[in-house]
């Protein structure tokens, strides 16, 4: 998998990195924890410019956050929650997730929530929804999303860049690790897809 993913990034170039990071914010075919270190690895090998890789990854992550921000802003919490309850099994986002994210957003303050939320894998995507629901000014949302995303992508890219000297060790580590991460993401998605009905029924009984 190491060679296949690096080959995919090589063929796509900077636009490929941007596109993968965009998709990672919608439904992660390949998680950012795999994309950016491998892009950094290729930068260290001379195939890419390190700073251009960070910019491409950051922009992809930012653009991927926009659909959720605008969905929250246009639909509001109640409609967004109903949409998640109806189609959430395909999005791996439940109505309860929307409500809890909104509560967390309000409890921690909008700016801090958006900034630090971009650094937490479990809520990197979800945090954009309550920001939109709260009608956070777009410039504020954009600034804190870009700042958090840049830190996240820089750290991951730098990790791959610094490990370039240990090519064989990187390949030996990333190959099984990336398989585990991808399988875990797919497994969680399938689990939530299969159990969405029973979880909704359980909440209704509660």
UniProtKB/TrEMBL annotation:
Coiled-coil zones: none
Membrane topology category: Multi-pass membrane protein
Protein localization: Cell membrane
Principal location listed in the UniProt entry: membrane
Domain VTT: 30-161
Residues spanning the membrane: 12-30, 50-71, 141-164, 176-194
Keyword Cell inner membrane: no
Keywords on record: Cell membrane, Membrane, Transmembrane, Transmembrane helix
Stored InterPro entries: DedA_domain (IPR051311), VTT_dom (IPR032816)
PANTHER family: ALKALINE PHOSPHATASE LIKE PROTEIN, UNDECAPRENYL PHOSPHATE TRANSPORTER A
Name the UniProt record assigns to this protein: DedA family protein
Organism lineage: Bacteria, Pseudomonadati, Pseudomonadota, Gammaproteobacteria, Pseudomonadales
